[in-house]
Design a protein that fits this description.
The chain is mainly α and 70 residues long. It has helices at 10-20, 36-48, 52-55, 64-69. The longest helix has 13 residues, at 36-48. The two termini are 14 Å apart.
Length: 70
């Protein structure tokens, strides 16, 4: 998301993601738990700024092109 929508280079996108969503150790109870909605909204806040949630209060899902990948 950060690369596609935010225009960040791969290393920069990884650094931003790890800053907000640190990688969980192998023995962490929630390891492997993937919450797409949280990641989506975090990426939108990062790329569009703090007012994203105010300007887009409705639930937002990924674009159809992203859905097609899953």
């Amino acid at each position: 998301m950060m690369r596609h929508y935010g225009g960040l280079a791969p290393a920069e996108a990884r650094e931003e993601a790890l800053e907000c969503h640190p990688y969980e150790p192998a023995d962490h109870a929630c390891r492997g738990l993937v919450l797409h909605d949280e990641a989506w909204h975090w990426a939108m806040l990062t790329t569009h700024g703090d007012r994203y949630a105010v300007e887009h209060p409705e639930p937002a899902g990924p674009p159809a092109e992203d859905e097609a990948l899953g």
